[in-house]
Design a protein that fits this description.
alpha/beta; 7 helices; 18 strands; binds flavin-adenine dinucleotide; binds FE2/S2 (inorganic) cluster
């Protein structure tokens, strides 16, 4: 069985299991996911999608439906394609168009840990099914005692039905105050997702991970996946924070650097009063060697000003990375 992640245009992801010899479209329809489809014969191109990771057999098709060049780039016809391994496929339609309902998941808090004055680690135990997600994705979590939700990136891969999150403690913030003052093991939580197009792709060239504050969270999940599967390319991470005590999970990063081949990281602290060896913003520590003339994949995650600053910096240095993936931890009121 191959596990197929179907990623829709609105960021929603659903996983289906494809039997040996079954096309991706048949597997999706068996699970009542109506991905775009017309001829079912490789002739019309309606089902054309993009495969971001995994090995597969293309199947037969007409050039009108998909050109050789498109096939080389990674396009596939889901009505013909048969997976040879787990795959990640970008579907050119929204989840609503494919009749996918948002997946709500019941969970409870297992542990709340104060990792530093500014950062809270939350371990969440799933009640039923452990969510299937791509490392880097997030869920919306209902704030207990309110009708509001907040988005949080998984900061681990699931372990024994438990998933982790890394949350910045914003004084007076709705979720922050709940977690800092009231949250206790056993509290019920409602999660919806997984969501997001910020996830780890197959590594085809060196990668640069740029994390700002709790923007570290999705990278921890990605690195756990690489710890399990191995990494074929060098990865360097720059993890920037405002103050010294915003730096968290350094021991975990050290452990990951010891087991993920080619993974290295540096930390950067912005506070002028800090005695940290690397001061300023992550952009102050991007050497020509690190940027490799743009021949690299950049993954960037953090608060909006940090993400905008890095984008502006790269544009100013005329660096166009081979691939650029980015997640902004925007406050909820800016997302409405
Ligand atoms: C896709 C996505 C993934 C996210 N993943 C994470 C994650 O893994 N970890 C994490 O800590 N956060 C994450 N966030 C941010 C998170 O969803 C909340 O916005 C944040 O935790 C604040 O929620 P709150 O209820 O405590 O504060 P709120 O009650 O929403 O806000 C309180 C006050 O703080 C301000 N504020 C809120 N967020 C910020 C911010 N980032 N910077 C400066 N001021 C802010 C608000 O403008 C408001 O004035 C993510 C956001 C998005 C969009
Ligand atoms: S549905 Fe026509 S090519 Fe796949």
């Amino acid at each position: 069985m191959a596990r197929i992640a179907l990623n829709f245009e609105d960021g929603v992801t659903r996983f289906v299991e494809a039997h040996p010899g079954e096309t991706v479209a048949d597997a999706a329809y068996r699970c009542r996911i109506n991905i775009p489809m017309d001829c079912r014969d490789g002739a019309c191109g309606t089902c054309k999608s993009f495969c971001e990771a995994g090995a597969y057999e293309l199947g037969s098709h007409l050039d009108d439906a998909m050109t050789e060049d498109e096939a080389r780039q990674g396009y596939v016809l889901t009505c013909q394609m048969k997976a040879r391994s787990d795959c990640v496929i970008r579907i050119a339609a929204t989840s609503a168009m494919c009749k996918v309902k948002p997946a709500a998941m019941a969970a409870e808090i297992e542990e709340v840990r104060r990792l530093s004055p500014s950062t809270i680690g939350v371990a969440v135990k799933m009640k039923d099914e452990v969510p299937a997600y791509l490392p880097g994705q997030y869920v919306n979590i209902g704030v207990p005692g309110s009708s509001e939700t907040r988005s949080y990136s998984f900061s681990s891969m699931p372990k024994d039905g438990v998933v982790d999150f890394l949350v910045r403690n914003i004084p007076g913030g709705l979720m922050s105050s709940y977690l800092a003052d009231r949250a206790a093991p056993g509290d019920a939580l409602n999660l919806t997702g997984p969501i997001g197009s910020f996830y780890l792709r197959d590594l085809k060239r060196r990668a640069l991970f740029l994390a700002g504050g709790t923007g570290l969270a999705p990278f921890l999940a990605m690195l756990e996946k690489l710890e399990r599967d191995g990494a074929s390319q060098p990865i360097h991470m720059l993890y920037g924070v405002t103050r010294d005590d915003d730096l968290v999970e350094l021991e975990r990063l050290g452990e990951l650097a010891a087991v993920v081949p080619g993974f290295t990281f540096d930390t950067v602290v912005a506070d002028e009063r800090s005695a940290h060896p690397r001061k300023g913003f992550v952009t102050h520590h991007l050497s020509d060697e690190t940027l490799n003339g743009g021949d690299l994949d950049i993954y960037l995650c953090g608060p909006p000003p940090m993400v905008d600053a890095v984008r502006g910096y790269l544009a100013g240095r005329n660096v166009t990375p081979s691939n650029f993936y980015c997640e902004k931890f925007s406050p909820s009121e800016q997302r409405a």
